[in-house]
Design goal:
470 residues, 30 strands, eleven-stranded mixed beta sheet, globular, alpha/beta, seven-stranded mixed beta sheet, Rossmann fold, GMP Synthetase, Chain A, domain 3
Length: 470
């Protein structure tokens, strides 16, 4: 059994857009085939290309050459070095001067440039790839610990892309007019599935650019014609809304990686006359369910996917997903609908009282003037005479610490008020908007150190375990 490399029906069909210029499916196949011939010998391809077109060409070149792509959870030197040690038989792909450089061991670098749009370069029909081929190894984000490898077969990811397109109702009008614009990295499973695979097998098109800041998002969206679909994350959406940037028409907005606040979804729909959907899933299983946020808290599973309870855990199975446990607590309604109740391990117990960290963070981010923030458990105290408290880092340049605590105190039990609550310039979110645990704790330690070094005055409280600046 096999699946075509792409599902576009003709070589002239639009598969990508770069700076507003369309790139045809035939040219894409020609580019991927040409790069496949130039790849140095290796079992794995570590694809760190930021440009989404170059990433997709590199991924498809690896498929044509029978290789497996490694999708790094981030592009930090530390992560790339870890993967190089773990997978020594690897060729490394990176962006270089509008093209791709391939590095492998001590061999000389291989340089490849895509053909310019509107040239006669075209290859058709697209080749077929065996469904059982391990197309990619994705890695968990590392937000809760060491990134873990997850094998993804070609058949599984193709089925997932088709299921997502149906769940988002992209087929309610001709899908070939859709252009996917992503603020999330193509190496992350959500970005990989929703901005690359869904274009290859929707089939539709994607924007080559990787905009992140509001002005970049607006620029890429403006130059991309068709039914624009913004693939993003809550932290990016919040920044876009707060910037008050005018936006061209958006057919819909898709969000994932963290729960999206109802109020934020409502603002997006009102400001941009669009519809906001969320995708729920994880790297381990793949995409599981969707909902339109303003319609309520109920999620509906994707085609043929079901939820069951096994040994106190919630498992997804059926359809395109890889059967396995989910990291969240659910409230099942039927075997295909449910409500999310928070992460399985995010319930904290302080003074005999219990609360969800996800719920506390939702309340923090709902405070007017809070740009970003995180409430979390610091490392456990070793002094048995001190009670464990929560900690918070908040980006809110126009709100005092006292105002933040007053707003929280009005909504949560005093036991869960974060002490210390420290204001910072930014949080160490990765390209997907997640907060890796190690980086978060490092920022917290630096913020605490800065607070403790401040001179003591009548407005400074700095006692052990409760460093606070009023």
């Amino acid at each position: 059994m096999s699946e075509l490399l792409i599902a576009h029906r003709a070589p002239e069909a639009r598969i990508a857009v770069r700076a507003g210029a369309p790139i045809g499916a035939g040219q894409f196949v020609a580019d991927a085939t040409a790069l496949a011939r130039q790849l140095p010998p290796a079992r794995y391809v570590l694809n760190s290309c930021r440009d989404r077109y170059l990433f997709a060409v590199g991924f498809c070149a690896a498929l044509i050459a029978g290789r497996t792509s490694l999708l790094p959870p981030s592009r930090t030197p530390e992560i790339l070095a870890q993967l190089a040690l773990r997978y020594p038989d690897t060729v490394y792909l990176a962006d270089e001067a509008g093209g791709i450089v391939a590095l492998s061991g001590t061999a000389a670098p291989t340089h490849w440039q895509p053909k310019q749009p509107n040239t006669n370069a075209s290859a058709w029909p697209p080749p077929a790839i065996a469904r059982e081929h391990v197309a990619a190894i994705a890695f968990t984000s590392g937000s809760t610990g060491e990134p873990q490898a997850q094998l993804k077969t070609w058949g599984g990811v193709v089925d997932g892309a088709r299921a997502e397109a149906l769940a988002l109702q992209l087929d309610e009008a001709p899908i070939d007019d859709v252009v996917l614009i992503g603020t999330v990295s193509p190496q992350h499973m959500y970005g990989f599935e929703s901005t690359v695979l869904m274009a290859l097998h929707g089939p539709c098109a994607f924007a080559a650019e990787h905009p992140l800041h509001p002005d970049e998002v607006r620029a890429v969206t403006t130059q991309s014609s068709g039914r624009r679909v913004l693939i993003t994350a809550p932290v990016h959406l919040r920044a876009l809304v707060e910037s008050a940037q005018s936006m061209p028409a958006l057919d819909r907005v898709v969000s994932a990686t963290a729960p999206l606040a109802l109020e934020l979804a409502q603002r997006c729909e009102s400001m941009w006359s669009t519809r906001v959907f969320e995708v729920y899933g994880c790297t381990e299983t793949g995409m599981v369910a969707t909902r339109r946020t303003v319609d309520g808290p109920v999620w509906t599973t994707m085609r043929d996917v079901r939820i069951e309870v096994c040994g106190g855990e919630f498992h997804a199975y059926g359809g395109h997903v890889r059967p396995g446990p989910l990291a969240d607590r659910l409230r099942p309604i039927t075997d295909s609908t449910f409500e999310l109740e928070g992460r399985a391990g995010d319930v904290v117990n302080i003074g005999g009282k219990r609360a969800s960290l996800e719920g506390l963070n939702r309340l923090l981010l709902s405070i007017d003037g809070v740009i970003d923030g995180a409430i979390f458990e610091p490392p456990a105290v070793t002094d048995s005479t001190r009670e464990q408290r929560l900690m918070a880092l908040v980006v809110a340049p126009n709100i005092t610490r006292a105002e933040l605590l007053a707003a929280l105190r009005a909504q949560i039990d005093a036991a869960f008020l974060p002490r210390p609550l420290l204001r910072v310039d930014s949080l160490p979110r990765n390209a997907q908007g997640k907060l890796p645990k190690a980086e978060l704790l490092a920022v917290a330690e630096r913020a605490l150190g800065s607070t403790r070094r401040q001179p003591k005055t009548s407005r400074t409280v700095a006692r052990a375990g409760d460093a606070r600046v009023d």
